[in-house]
Design brief:
4 strands; 2 helices; 24% strand; alpha+beta; 97 residues; single chain; four-stranded antiparallel beta sheet
């Protein structure tokens, strides 16, 4: 009986821990029209990498529909970003394209 109780507590702890993981708005998108990092467009902070990619896809579609060339555009999604610093840069724990 004690083993079952311990396993239940471990399982409950894992569920509580992982249900909160990534649930806050920890991701931010950075879109660079023409690949120019000095002209970046920042997304609002979002809850997941998938939401960040959706924002980027929306940016690409909007620019393409407006007749703008997106061939050289670049982007990235940052996790737990801080900034901007004095030089205007953001630092992120992780970035993904």
């Amino acid at each position: 009986m004690k083993i079952i109780l311990k396993l239940a507590l471990i399982g409950l702890s894992a569920v509580i821990f992982f249900s909160g993981y990534g649930s806050s708005n920890d991701w931010q998108g950075f879109y660079y029209p023409g690949g120019d990092s000095y002209q970046s467009i920042l997304s609002p902070q979002v809850a997941s990498y998938a939401a960040c990619k959706a924002w980027i896809n929306g940016m690409e579609s909007a620019r393409e529909q407006a007749g703008q060339n997106i061939y050289y555009d670049e982007y990235e999604c940052g996790y737990k970003c801080k900034g901007p610093s004095v030089n205007g840069l953001y630092t992120c724990k992780e970035t993904k394209e």
